[in-house]
Recover the amino acids of this structure.
């Protein structure tokens, strides 16, 4: 039993070995051969088809072979081409081949059915014949498939969703396949090359081949959180295919800072605390939580907030916070920039306020006092030195 | 012996008489026309210069006072030199000429107190100067509107009005000085020379002298910007003895809303700029804030006028008039 198995394996190996070597130089094949990869083909009426033939010489001396085609139905035209030109004879060198092609012009009104054409190569010693069966048939319908690699994607409004799509042309010929995508309103959907940024409207795919393209969907900034559906549709001639893709947008808070009346300016007296009402608005699609407020002002200034932080702001809601700005005692009158920032877990917003610093009028009153004293001295002098 | 009635009885009479004397005297007419013509020439050349520059200036009207053609001093500079001259010219013989013409005892024989005489003379002088300066001011504004074709804004006009008031006070300081010397010195020529000498000293010599006098108060090393600013402050304190320096500081701040400190021009002359961290440079200040910056200087000038006048008054009251 065991020996039998080994013997079978050995026999198989012996059979296999010449088969492997046969590709380059078959030792036991000799002579001239007229060959075709597909000696029975299907063509469409009214079209020109080309069949490739080969004249192979194995191990014999070169010989001139006259070529001819017989059995051509009436109305058909069959031409043998070699190197692009009509040829009437071929001469393959030893261990070499000559490529030929048979061009068939089939009239439109040719009857359905199978015709057999015979290509003959006649030399002085040998005559080769190759019968080719040509079947007339209607065209195969184009068939397309589109397969997404990752059909469900998830991200925020700021991300772009990229789907890899494999487009397969299952029809019998090269097709230019147009690409289209149906996305929710205001979503931007574009097809690009798989590795590249060139946007595409159509992509050529050879018969039986597959091509990968990328569908990039960019949601609008205002898109609410939720699930969306995108339909990718490919079409060529009368065939089409669609695939449904899903994208889930997770909400994101977006903060905005302004003042109560929209003015980004405030007045403050040097050394005195001024209250600036600030409105923090969440214009995003998810609630903002744990919002910290801080301010950056010129050195020596103090910026604090009441309350110091906000727990939560729902989408499209706002909260008012009091910013307490205290310019330094020594601030010179003028306009200063103060930046107020709100940050909530990765999301932050800032606004620059223009603070007009005024100085205290206390010294102005003191000055008037000094003038008053001078006038009192004058009155005193008039009273003291007044003479008759 | 106490007097009866108001000390200012007859003040109006004296003032009106003095005023009419002032406005009709050849001396005043010549001086006023001189100042007005010089000022108009300066402003006219200044306007030619401004027209060549961009008109995108929100305070174009104020530039009339501070800009001028190349090689020509600007209007504020001209005023700071000529206003004292006119004031001294008006005031150096107010009292001593009466005395020399023996008219003082005659006036005082009328029911007019000495107080009223002195107040009247001073006020008449001040009104004369005010009329001259107002006429000049209106001409400048008018020329500006006519040649630049830009209507002045409220803020600009307010600043220009305050500047006019400060100029009148500046004229008052020198009028009070001239009045004091006309009381102290019997000879009009002496009074005029002393007043002019004081003016020359304070205007030309003092600015050169002040930095040397300030040296003992200045530390050698400058390690920070606050050191530099405090040393500039000491230098300024010395230079402020001269009313001209005070006037220049006030007007410099009032006529340029972007100036935030009286030290800014000094720093600029050193090639430095006053930059407050976080501040927006060049942003205009409101008038009140500009005024607050130079309020101490303004108060000093106003109080200076009153004090100088009171000294003159006390000296005059103690003098013998019948001699």
């Amino acid at each position: 039993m065991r020996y039998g198995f080994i013997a079978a394996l050995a026999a198989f190996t012996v059979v296999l070995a010449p088969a492997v070597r046969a590709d380059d130089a078959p030792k036991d094949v000799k002579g001239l051969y007229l060959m075709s990869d597909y000696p029975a083909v299907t063509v469409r009426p009214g079209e020109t088809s080309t069949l490739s033939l080969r004249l192979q010489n194995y191990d014999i001396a070169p010989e001139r072979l006259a070529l001819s085609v017989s059995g051509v139905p009436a109305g058909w035209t069959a031409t043998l081409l070699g190197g692009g030109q009509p040829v009437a004879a071929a001469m393959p060198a030893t261990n070499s081949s000559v490529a030929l092609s048979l061009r068939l012009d089939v009239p439109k009104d040719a009857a359905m059915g199978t015709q057999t054409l015979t290509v003959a190569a006649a030399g002085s010693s040998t005559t080769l014949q190759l019968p080719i069966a040509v079947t007339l048939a209607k065209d195969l319908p184009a068939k397309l498939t589109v397969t997404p690699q990752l059909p469900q994607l998830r991200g925020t409004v700021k991300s772009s969703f990229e789907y890899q799509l494999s487009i397969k042309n299952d029809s019998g010929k090269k097709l230019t396949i147009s690409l289209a995508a149906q996305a929710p309103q205001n979503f931007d959907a574009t097809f690009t090359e798989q590795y590249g940024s060139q946007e595409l409207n159509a992509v050529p795919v050879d018969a039986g081949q597959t091509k990968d393209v990328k569908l990039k969907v960019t949601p609008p900034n205002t898109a609410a959180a939720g699930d969306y559906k995108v339909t990718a549709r490919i079409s060529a001639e009368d065939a089409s295919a669609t695939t449904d893709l899903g994208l889930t947008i997770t909400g994101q808070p977006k903060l905005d800072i302004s003042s109560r009346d929209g003015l980004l300016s405030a007045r403050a007296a040097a050394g005195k605390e001024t209250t600036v009402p600030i409105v923090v608005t969440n214009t995003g699609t998810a609630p903002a939580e744990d919002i910290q407020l801080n301010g950056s002002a010129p050195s020596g200034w103090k910026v604090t907030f009441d309350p110091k932080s906000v727990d939560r702001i729902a989408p499209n809601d706002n909260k008012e916070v009091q910013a307490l700005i205290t310019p330094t005692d020594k601030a010179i009158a003028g306009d200063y920039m103060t930046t107020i920032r709100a940050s909530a877990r990765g999301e932050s917003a800032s606004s620059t306020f223009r603070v007009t610093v005024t100085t205290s009028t206390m010294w102005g009153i003191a000055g008037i006092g000094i003038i008053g004293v001078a006038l009192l001295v004058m009155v005193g002098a008039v009273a003291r030195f007044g003479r008759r | 012996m106490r007097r009866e009635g108001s000390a200012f009885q007859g003040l109006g009479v004296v003032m009106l008489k003095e005023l009419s004397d002032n406005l009709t005297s050849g001396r005043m007419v010549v001086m006023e026309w001189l100042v007005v013509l010089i000022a108009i020439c300066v402003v006219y050349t200044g306007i030619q210069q401004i027209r060549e520059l961009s008109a995108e200036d929100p305070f174009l009207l104020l530039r009339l006072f501070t800009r001028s053609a190349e090689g020509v001093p600007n209007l504020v500079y001209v005023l700071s030199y000529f206003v004292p001259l006119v004031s001294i010219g008006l005031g150096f013989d107010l009292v001593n000429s009466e005395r020399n013409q023996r008219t003082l005892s005659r006036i005082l024989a009328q029911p007019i107190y000495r107080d009223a005489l002195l107040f009247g003379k001073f006020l008449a002088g001040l009104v004369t100067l005010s009329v001259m300066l107002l006429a000049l001011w209106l001409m400048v504004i008018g020329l500006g509107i006519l040649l630049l074709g830009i209507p002045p804004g409220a803020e600009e006009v307010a600043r220009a009005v305050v500047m006019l008031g400060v100029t009148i006070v500046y004229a008052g300081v020198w009028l009070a000085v001239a009045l004091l010397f006309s009381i102290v010195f019997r000879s009009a020529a002496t009074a005029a020379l002393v007043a002019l000498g004081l003016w020359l000293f304070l205007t030309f010599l003092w600015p050169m002298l002040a930095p040397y006098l300030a040296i003992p108060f200045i530390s050698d090393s400058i390690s920070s910007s606050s050191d530099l600013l405090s040393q500039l402050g000491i230098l300024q304190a010395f230079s402020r003895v001269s009313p001209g320096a005070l006037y220049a500081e006030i007007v410099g701040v009032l006529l340029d809303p972007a100036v935030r400190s009286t030290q800014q021009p000094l720093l600029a002359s050193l090639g430095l700029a006053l930059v407050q961290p976080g501040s927006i440079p060049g942003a205009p200040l409101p008038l009140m804030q500009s005024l607050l910056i130079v309020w101490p200087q303004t108060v000093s000038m106003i109080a200076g006028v009153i004090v100088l006048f009171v000294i003159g008054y006390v000296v005059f009251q103690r003098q013998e008039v019948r001699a």
